[in-house]
Specification:
The chain is an alpha+beta fold. Helix content is 31%, strand content 31%.
Amino acid sequence: MSFSFSWYRRRHFFILSAAFSLWYCLSSHAHADSTPSSDISVSVFSTYPSDQLATSCNDISPLGACIEDGISPDLFINIIKEKGWFKAVMAFNELYDYELLIAHMNTLSDKGRVVHFLEMTLLWRGMEINSTSVDTESHQDHDGKSSDSKEDIATRLLSRWYAKSDENHLFTTDFLYSALEASDYTRSLKVPQKLGDFTRFDTQLYPDPFKGAVTRYIHPTFEDALIDVTVYPLIAKASANRDTLLQQALHDDWKKASEVAHARGLNLSKDKPLTTFTANPRATGWRIAMKAESQTSDTIYATTYVFTQHDKIIKISTTFPTALSDPIARTLMETIEVPTPSPLMEQVRQLLN
């Protein structure tokens, strides 16, 4: 099927759908693959050593004399800030989704050397996703005395931990989704490479498993003609009415679009009211069509559709009217396959019920 855009041309590109504005945040987040943590903000706390860390320390100590926090948590936190590994670092404040818990122990080994252990536990919204331990010996001069300052030791420990984190891609969306046992959109989401004249540009994971993944389609001729397909889990009780949830998703989009239009001096109206839309006998959802008008620019259109499949919402957002977007929505819903319910969402729904 081919969709004609020969008459469709706009000089002013205006984004009405919330999915589009979030796309650019996604793109910038994923752009820094070499140092993914540079887009991550973390809260940092001190914590007690785990039994495993305590065992590792006691095993090399003849007297089992391990000391906790021989290097203060504040010193570790200050070094993390100075290194610039993260977008922002907040000490002892639950401000960010990511939290780092620091535990330190040191002891005198049977070889007469001071050995330091660092345990870094990473949480996302209170859920542990990784724990990594590193160790180092104090350097000694010719007289057998330590030639390292506490800052030297702390820096060496943190650098080793960060190297491991980078090697294991700890601060990437792929790792987050896997560690939380969220849906594997990379392997299980099936979308067509082409939709009429449109070609799939990319699929990206949101840096939040509850927001899922978004796929963008672009047109070879009209750069302002875009399609975004967002797939994300339903966060509601199993007994919740799906039509109500879908309508609410479109009401939320309308509210966000209204705020943007008002800020830009545009008059937003519904080109087509909120109504049911049947893509095929197996896929009936809801559709809303908007248009934004002003005295100084062309009329701007946006159409959004929402459906459910398994435990996911499928949101199709376009930057053009229903006459062009309806066939695209029908074609997509014939072929799209979304992941089945994930262990993460099964646990969440058990808590909601």
